[in-house]
Structure formats: C-alpha cells, structure tokens
C-alpha cells in the first residue's frame, strides 16, 4: 500500500460528520482497496452512520483491534485538497485522524499479506466528531466482541507521548424556568436567564475557570467544566421564561457521575433543574503493563528517542473496549491545528507510527 497516497485519497473525501454521500464513498473506497485480499470488509449500517469493519478472521475475540474514524469537522473547500510542504501535510483530517486511519489500513494489508498468526481487526466509525453513535450501535450489534489489545491513534498530537489516561466526558443540560413579564417591570416576572447565571456562578465556585490568558495549572489532572452552549430569551423587552445551557464536564478516574450530581444539586437555585445528557468512563491504563512497555520499546527504537507517558482531558472511543478489560495503547503522530484551519501532520510521524504498529504486530504474532 502506498501509505501517503492513501492518506491523501482519504482527505479528498469530504466526510464531514453527517455527509452521508461522501462517507459512503469513502467507506466503499476502503472496501475496494482490499478486494482480492484475505481481509474481510463489511460496511456495517447503523441508524446513525456506517462503521467500516475489517478483519482477518471470522472470530470476534481479537488479539488486536485498531479503532479510529474517518469523519471530520467542517472545513473550507481548499482543506479537502491536501498540501505537502516542508515535511508536513496540511488538510482537514491530516491529524484528526485520516492519516492514522490509513496507517490502520496499512497494518491490515501487512497482516494479511504476511499471514501473521494473530486475530486482527480494524473498526472505523464515521460520526466520532458528534458522539460516536455508530460505534455504540456497532458494539450493541456485536456484544461478544473483545480484544486483548486495542491500538488507539486518535489521541494527542505528539509522537513522543503515549497517553495512559483519558477523562470521562459528561454532558449536562441546565434548564431554568422563569415567568414572562415586560422588560420595564422585571418585578412582575422571574428571569430564567438570571436563574441560569446564578446557578452557573455556584457551579464555578466548585469547578474554577481556566483560560489561556490566566495563570496555568501545574497539574491538569482534575475535574473541569466549560460552558459549551447557552440559550435564553427571545426579544429584548421581555423577561425570559426559559433558558438552558449545555455544560461539558471532564472527570478523572478519582471522580464519578454520582459525586457530580451531588455537586449539581447543591448549585441549583429555585426554578432550575439539570439533566445528564451523556456520560462515559475514563480510560486509565497501568504504565507498567507489559504490552504497553513492549510497544513503548519498539516505538523508542524506531524513533531513536525516549517516549513519555501523559494524561489528556479528551475522550476516546477505545473506552468501549477498556470497560471489557482490553489493554488500550493510545499513541498518535505529531501535528497541530486539530479542528482549525491550519491542521497538519508531520509526515515522518505517519511513517513512524506505521512502522511501530507493524513491528509490534510481528512481535505479538511470535508470542
């Protein structure tokens, strides 16, 4: 497989989440690449969005699974034409994460071509950027699926770091109910916007505000929240009778949703309620896990430099396997501008991740 060509081909598909036509074209492109090989490729249709499922076995108890996605966030037209300059590839999805979806396909081709005696699979979702409902549907359809090891390249952006911890994303809606009145007589109404702000101030007393222009925390491994979305009021001269806000909490493994709910109950003022929209689980791996240390050793040998462990606040689809006891190895290439107009990946890091994966898979096949 021409790895870099595959990356560029994938980027040219405008697979913004929800763009069914382009997503289906990209899925078919992947399936066609394995025509004539021993790989089994299914495009699993869900009510949300398809999942591309590749494997070299009929079994569902895999030795290794690679998880990823091929959908991207929206971008200008020119970002779907990759540009290579000064050792970097620019374009939507170069870092998040079509480069590493291509790496997964490269690994599948290698496993099949060399008949490696491991049960190997690749699962690529197509709506990760909006909650991975397709992955949830896929896992429900295959409740018996398992993997001893999961390789997750959808993290970070620094090849010199292996992620050992990810937080639990919990999305909460705060809803305020007020009473309408004319804006000139606020004493005749109850301002839902005000109730919402009062509740928000109470939440901030527990979960402090952080920003780029403020003092930075020395240790970021704690619970955080940001104000993701707010709506309230219709016109300027009416006291709002309804307001709501969507909050994005990120919880460490030292916290849980039950404690979050206790804190929320303390923060609510009269007329305000909350709803947990979604929650997951943190992914926490033992940095002394033998498989992770083996992988780390191969990575350091290929790169010629030491690799450190890090913790990140972002979530990962690999949590679906972590809760089943899989060892999750979270490692990605180097780049920047994720979800931004200048998104890029360092080309050498794509090649290095591909080499690391193959060496690691060969090692597992020899065990």
Structural class: alpha+beta
Number of strands: 17
What sort of overall outline do the alpha carbons produce when their principal axes are compared?
elongated
Along the chain, the helix and strand elements come as HHEEEEEHEHEEEHEEHEEHEHEEEH
Tell me the strand percentage band: 25-35%
CATH class of the largest domain, named Alpha Beta
Q: Could you please describe the fold and organization of this structure?
A:
The strands form three sheets. Strands 1, 2, 3, 6, 7, 8, 13, 14 and 15 form a nine-stranded mixed sheet that branches. The protein has a four-stranded antiparallel sheet with strand order 4-5-17-16. The longest helix is centred in the C-terminal third of the chain and has 20 residues. Helix 3 runs parallel beside helix 9. Helices cover 31% and strands 26% of the residues. It folds into two domains: 249 residues, Aminopeptidase (3-Layer(aba) Sandwich), CATH 3.40.630; 111 residues, 2-Layer Sandwich (Alpha-Beta Plaits), CATH 3.30.70. The chain has 367 residues and is an alpha+beta fold.
